[in-house]
Amino acid sequence: MAMKMVTAIGKGPEAGALGEHLAQEIKAGLGKQEAGFVMLLASSKYDRQALLKAVRQVLGSAPLIGCTTAGEFTEKEVVKEAVALTVLSQSEDYSFHVSVATGLHEDASVCVQKAVDVIPAAPKNLPNRSAIMLHDGLAGRGEEAVLSTMTILGPGVSFAGGSAGDDLAFKETFVFCNDEITTNSVALCVIDSKTPMGIAVKHGHSPVSRMLTVTKAKDNVLFEVNDEPAWEVWKREIAGEAKSIGIDVQALKEASEIGQFLIRYEMGLATATEYKVRVPLSKNDDGSLNFGCTIPEGVKFRIMKSPKEDQIASAEQAARNAIDQMKGVKLAGAFIFDCVCRGIILGDEFSKGVHAMQKVIGPVPLIGFETYGEICRQSGQFSGFHNTTSVVMLLPA
Q: H-helix or E-strand containing 178?
């Protein structure tokens, strides 16, 4: 029997009741088929323990991963402060294995190795190995986690995923794996399949500043740009552009205002082909900026911007690139990892980007969330951790 994907999404005043309702909706949609894999995506406003317990009681012990988010969507609805749930049914063409490990901030490689060590070898009848990776979005080790996973899983394994969020509070994010809820962690679902997945990524940013240089940084904290405090450089370089859309950079005082400004105007690292975007998540009292991954000293970059129409077009292109990889294979559904930065840039028009992807993918179930960073590792290509992108992962039926 072909694999079936079923989704459910909703809000409610009580996490346990909401989790049970969504899980029952999923169970009804599965019919006589059994759950093979579960993904749970939840706003940070909900009681995580009650939510997870309710979902597990209804859907049983099927392998599960998930995380807290900054926005949720399925093919049915695009919302905030909700819970989205999906199940992939059991199929002889698929196997799913999940794991979790902590200690991401201290040593990403050791953390990922612990998670991979418990994953069994791929069965011979399922030759295509891929993975979904979710990790603590505030651990500051996004790039290191992805590069470690790429090295440990090997060059032939494609994977996608995202950094957990907390509804733009930037305080604490959580990852789920089976019955565990952890922070400072990585969760993996390794998927062995008969047919390969389609995975693609795209951003819609272009440079707005002159070329700049990181002159002082440590781990994921950027202290100085061109030997000046990073925040002062950001304000000066972007003042004119920000003014054109009604933002007075000198008036930015509240942490939430500064955070949204930084998410709108991000770092674009110069590469041989295109800019690789890195998002400053917050500002410290000394004018340094916190990122979701390590920022090396000496790198060249420009501060970036992205018009709304380019954000929507890039989401659509990501879906087209993933579809092209499928070569006409029938789809069961899609996972989408979409940056919260795009949500801030698009505002009420964020759903247009989701609908643009949905139109390309076709009338199949999909589930996704607004992340604090996106992951796209395509077999045979050097790709990895991203910001302000749409990552599309397509699952064959």
A: none
- Segments in 157-244 forming alpha helices (H): 230-243
What's the start-to-end Cα distance of the chain, in Å? 9
CA distance 225 to 235: 12
CA distance 373 to 71: 13
User: What does pTM read for this prediction?
Assistant: 0.87
Task: Tell me whether residue 364 is exposed, middle or buried, using C-beta atoms within 10 angstroms of its C-beta: 0 to 12, 13 to 18, 19 or more.
Answer: middle
Strand 83-89 to strand 35-43: parallel, antiparallel, or no bridges (unpaired)? Answer: antiparallel
- How many angstroms separate the Cα of 101 from the Cα of each of 178, 218, 235, 354, 373? 12, 24, 39, 31, 19
Domain locations in the chain as residue ranges:
5-202+310-396, 206-305
**Degrees, nearest 5: CA angle 152-155-158:** 95
Cβ-Cβ contacts under 8 Å for 326 (sequence gap 6 or more): 198, 394, 396
Structure tokens at 114: 């612990």
pLDDT in tens, 199-255: 999 888 888 999 999 999 999 999 999 999 999 999 999 999 989 888 999 999 888
Neighbour tally for 365: CB within 10 Å:
22
